[in-house]
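Hi,

I'm pasting everything inline rather than attaching a file, because the server keeps stripping attachments. The sequence lines come first, and each chain or strand is labelled.
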Amino acid sequence: MFAVEVSEQIMIAHSFRGEVFGPAQQLHGATFVVRAAFIAEALDPNGIVVDIGRAHEALKATLGPLNYRNLDELPLFKGVNTTTEFVSKHVFDALAAAVRANELGRNGREIKALRITVLESPSACAWFEAPLW
Amino acid sequence: MFAVEVSEQIMIAHSFRGEVFGPAQQLHGATFVVRAAFIAEALDPNGIVVDIGRAHEALKATLGPLNYRNLDELPLFKGVNTTTEFVSKHVFDALAAAVRANELGRNGREIKALRITVLESPSACAWFEAPLW
Amino acid sequence: MFAVEVSEQIMIAHSFRGEVFGPAQQLHGATFVVRAAFIAEALDPNGIVVDIGRAHEALKATLGPLNYRNLDELPLFKGVNTTTEFVSKHVFDALAAAVRANELGRNGREIKALRITVLESPSACAWFEAPLW
Amino acid sequence: MFAVEVSEQIMIAHSFRGEVFGPAQQLHGATFVVRAAFIAEALDPNGIVVDIGRAHEALKATLGPLNYRNLDELPLFKGVNTTTEFVSKHVFDALAAAVRANELGRNGREIKALRITVLESPSACAWFEAPLW
Amino acid sequence: MFAVEVSEQIMIAHSFRGEVFGPAQQLHGATFVVRAAFIAEALDPNGIVVDIGRAHEALKATLGPLNYRNLDELPLFKGVNTTTEFVSKHVFDALAAAVRANELGRNGREIKALRITVLESPSACAWFEAPLW
Amino acid sequence: MFAVEVSEQIMIAHSFRGEVFGPAQQLHGATFVVRAAFIAEALDPNGIVVDIGRAHEALKATLGPLNYRNLDELPLFKGVNTTTEFVSKHVFDALAAAVRANELGRNGREIKALRITVLESPSACAWFEAPLW
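And the predicted assembly:
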């Protein structure tokens, strides 16, 4: 399997509901470094999985509405804990839709899976990986 | 698949037996940066794989008896080469037991696998990954 | 000049006032990785600048009241923009006071300067460095 | 599964053919940090996947002919785009041949797979992973 | 002294003249990660050294003409070795001019010095630092 | 001022004497990543501070006798605590002697200072910087 991975970062505020979160129940924030890996069985005739430029654009388009925001106030995330794991899945869903709509400049069917990694600090991260078809 | 990964570090001394190790047969040491990834099919009702705080605690509890020690002198490691690969497996076994004993704050059955990565330097690392059930 | 530097991290929310900040005027947040360097002309009889353990403790004590908080709501920061530069200076002031009060386990007079670096993302950081005496 | 991974770096020039590459159609270059992971089900009697020293040597031997070169001029790469993905596969093929020829100091049959990661910058990388048998 | 530092990256080809460079006399290339630090004695009324957004823009404007280029072919660099040290100084000169022309959104006189760091690989970098006035 | 910095790594065992060190009084070890910066006012006619290749060789020559060793047993370090700070100074002294003996391929007088940084873990490092003349 081939993969190409690009990364972008956002700065957000949020809080969590649930005793398990301890002090993170308070309003706080994070710099999220988000890596999106596009996975394919074969390279296209240009010798790439997908165009890195387009991959960056798709990732930025997904992250833009979250950047410099308090995630607690976004209708999109009403009633959910926007944990690092959850954000991984949110980005996965958005990029999966983009791939399936052939928006990455390659027949979406040829992208077999995505893996989204979100680093919240030097000592903790989360990821979500799944096939697309 | 979802994963959440935390990291801790230890500073140890050890030596290896076997010609393949060359100068590493001498007593030397390493800073091991140890990353533990907990892997699950679904998030719990809080929106997490496991509590990051508990994950850090479990990893620290596993690494504590090794930190600032000469591994050659630990009865636990008598007669084995405490290679980076071996340490990965050792940490895996300890955390697997903790998960199976439901000590991570979630039904252990819901944690499907662990992946332990041990970085010995900027240019070399090892990992061990396996299902838990 | 000798220096020893330790690092810790915090996760905070905040917002900025001033057109120059653009979208960062909205409530957002950051993971701040904070590095504190203690600078001295000579090592003490143990061969250290200061005890790394104590340095970590002093840095944690300074950062604790900020961690998992919305800095906009802390009386301490009322009316100021808690920029990365500002946070560098805030940590400097707290650690400078600790050094001057001989709380680092060494005659504070022997610590000549501090340098505090705050990383807000992989692509931006700030620092503040000044002599202590 | 166990893995051990080593890394080396090279500095190369190249250009790409195809509109998708935009300005990268011009002659430019890259520092490629190349990580090679050797994957096995079990450790050998020494407690390792493969000797890290030999793994470094095998990776260096593969990368040597590319280092400080314009890849466009190498007969080996005539008519292909030497993308990050392509380089991952090229290194995979060379190391796979070395493993199959038992050149890593272990029966090649016991190495189940390789994963080659190539980082072209802090914000983009590619990898290729496949079983060897 | 306060500083704020931003980073950008470029991918370039070049070759060096002089026996000291060994194989780097051949046409090769590099990913240069370029960090620009703006240094001031005091923060402005907004609590910043300079606007990070403007700092990124100024650095991008300086690096743009080099990105995806063979530096050997740029009239600007005719007859010089575009070493990592040289590139540090080139970026310094361009940003110094921008600061002196008050293009960073603050009276240039209040920016006392610049420090430009260029990383060519994980194991080598160069920097140039000098006062501006 | 210009600088060029190279890095190498070693893996050592050692122990410390003194209550301040707590558990680090036990025999343990470290991976030391050692960075050596050579500082000059002007570039040489080739456009460099010193040849990066020679800088790597000089640093390796200094670190070689320490690598894969128990520093407690080296006559060179008899009776001293080989702290991270101390190792920084040790490397400084050796490279300063090499520069003064014109072994870096440039008139030593033109190298004004050295800065040696030793990273013992992702969260702690030390450095020593001083003029050479």
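Residues 85 and 126 of chain E are 5 Å apart (CA to CA).

If the labels don't parse on your end, tell me and I'll reformat.
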